[in-house]
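CORE FACILITY INTAKE
Project code: CF-77B
Contact: R.S. (postdoc)
Sample description: multi-component assembly, six entities in total
Requested service: structural model of the whole complex
Turnaround: standard
Below are the sequence entries exactly as provided by the requester. Do not edit them.
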Amino acid sequence: MALDATPAQSRTKGRETAERVRKAALKLFAEAGYAAVSMREIASAVGVQPGALYNHFPTKQDILKDLMLSHMAALLAAWENAGFPSAMDPLERFVRFHIRYHLQRADEVFIAYMELRNLDPENFAAVEAQRNRYEAILTSILEEGSTAGRYAVDNPRVATRAIIAMLTGLPTWYREGGRLTGDEIETLYLTMVRKAVAPVDTQSQRETG
Amino acid sequence: MALDATPAQSRTKGRETAERVRKAALKLFAEAGYAAVSMREIASAVGVQPGALYNHFPTKQDILKDLMLSHMAALLAAWENAGFPSAMDPLERFVRFHIRYHLQRADEVFIAYMELRNLDPENFAAVEAQRNRYEAILTSILEEGSTAGRYAVDNPRVATRAIIAMLTGLPTWYREGGRLTGDEIETLYLTMVRKAVAPVDTQSQRETG
Amino acid sequence: MALDATPAQSRTKGRETAERVRKAALKLFAEAGYAAVSMREIASAVGVQPGALYNHFPTKQDILKDLMLSHMAALLAAWENAGFPSAMDPLERFVRFHIRYHLQRADEVFIAYMELRNLDPENFAAVEAQRNRYEAILTSILEEGSTAGRYAVDNPRVATRAIIAMLTGLPTWYREGGRLTGDEIETLYLTMVRKAVAPVDTQSQRETG
Amino acid sequence: MALDATPAQSRTKGRETAERVRKAALKLFAEAGYAAVSMREIASAVGVQPGALYNHFPTKQDILKDLMLSHMAALLAAWENAGFPSAMDPLERFVRFHIRYHLQRADEVFIAYMELRNLDPENFAAVEAQRNRYEAILTSILEEGSTAGRYAVDNPRVATRAIIAMLTGLPTWYREGGRLTGDEIETLYLTMVRKAVAPVDTQSQRETG
DNA sequence: AATGAATGAGTGTTCATTCAT
DNA sequence: TATGAATGAACACTCATTCAT
């Protein structure tokens, strides 16, 4: 006798629902903020009763944790597989990657920066560890580039934060279909970053400071 | 005349309570976010019953609006009275002012950036108008400096946003008493900003791009 | 020395405010019901702060009691001074008086019938005693008229209630300026009441029963 | 099929709770008035937490609307199925029906007359439409009877309101077990109504007016 | 996996009332 | 007599969560 208590169909249906919960929560959290979104709203967006959410996530907090951890994991994985020309300057590589990825995933990024304080301490630590790993990539690039004389950065940790803040601010105002194409924006930001860390020996600004 | 129906003492007491409400709400909103703070928590921090808050602010939303609008007004007023040496480069002036002001008012700044979406549309418009006025200051500096050849900025609006994002990110991680003094941080950021907008004619990065 | 702590001016002003409170409360209670009207609303209608009401009425309940008792007193006094031609049939006298008075004081009447249950037991007893005195007038008229053979009423208490209910329902729908004048309405109701209590010996309805 | 996601038992339990809410609210509204009854009181009478009420009625207003609309619907349905001897005079039919129904449903009737002003405009319109349908029944009876010469009614609309006010006032004071039986009361009122609309040709009151 | 009913705590806000001034 | 600030309790309603089915 076939006593399969959880047939393949059910498992698939469940996985699909979980995914719809993630998508709905992502959108709603990004729009209104974690604290302002209720489980009822998420359920309603999914087309399900509130109780059903608890078949897929044990608490509301777990939905947030899931979104943030999987975002960070996806970000790091995407960097690993970025596939830029090997001749490209590492800083350019990072800037282009960061801008493209963050413009594509505006909601995830927004949540990742806004909802950190709504994470339980344990989940916060996990997310922050990932974030540090990501920032360390840029710090390494700056350190190695400075050592090699390609860049001039006084304090790579500070420069990392400054650059990431600058780049990450982009999706809060940039909208596709506006005056600037994604490529143009990318170039504008890349130019500013490069100059900001460029060796200063012959820079004319010396005279104007 | 002895017919003063609202004695000065009462009014003074009320104004003091209102100020304590503002202070408590500022701290709590900064810590946990507007949506996650209850009127009861604010009242408790003030040392008053919840109902008493409504003698000073008609709604919770009005507290937020008050905090944000008065922050923006204070920011613009502070810029007017900044009092830098007149010989100082305008960009340096702006960067130093912005960093100093934002490090001193970390809570206000944090709220001003985080709680925009929790403002009613009307209040949002008012705050945004102020924000645009502030950003326009930097845009003007960049435009005039570019025309004069002191800076080289392809798109002053974009550069404004990039620079402000970079600078405003600072209070989220910088803590006094750490490795770097405020002056050191200021100098580090100032250097990066200057380089980012510096004329490029002789910049060595040209060769690495 | 003249140590008059409450000068005549003050006393007059106070009496005027009390009267304005009565008027405002009357209107608001009639519109929305006692329970749904707040002291703040009354104060606001008077143009005064809520606390000031307590200089004139010790509680909200006392305002209601004041309105209802003074209405009943005024109603009974008006009946005493009605001044109808002495030859007029007593029932006609009562019906005409009742309709006229109740159409003129629609708000008071409405409250007197609707807000009985919102009176404290003690106040309720006082108002009901007055109401019974008023209804006893009609009952007497019916009893005396029955004895004299002018009317035929099986149960004067029941007839009293029936007639008063009929008449008192009038102000709930009658509006001046509509199709019927006050006089016409008065005549229509008077006719119905008279017929209802008329001796039946020759009434044709006998045959239809 | 075992895929019934909402088992009959759950739905039944819910329907029973909703019915208990209706019953409790009916009693409490009749006693104290809609505005003076809190959701907490209703919940407590039902034996449930306040929040549970909202599984059955979206707002307090909806409970009132439900009570009033279903009362009006039941009243009209009861008239359709009243089942009086076909030979009975239509007016007698209506009076007997109205008195019996209204004595049996004193709470519903009381609410239907007292809480009209607490209905939202939309709900008020719906209830009033039903009320007009009910009153139109009596108006038709009076009109047809007048045409046929059975009754003499100057203004059937006014007479309708007068008669209904008279009859509806009954449950506010009549209590079973008192001096008069229901049948006796019914007869007393019926007699008054009949006389009030009776043809006047030979009425002796003519001489007394 | 999903429902609908329920809980117990909490939400922003309003209440009648008090009181120092 | 009136104010403005405060209280303490209550308001209608929503919350995240549980659970029998």
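Facility notes:
- Chain D is about 70% helix and 0% strand.
- Residues 4-10, 38-40, 50-51, 53-54, 59-60 of chain D lie near DNA strand F (CB under 10 Å from a C1').
Invoice: internal transfer
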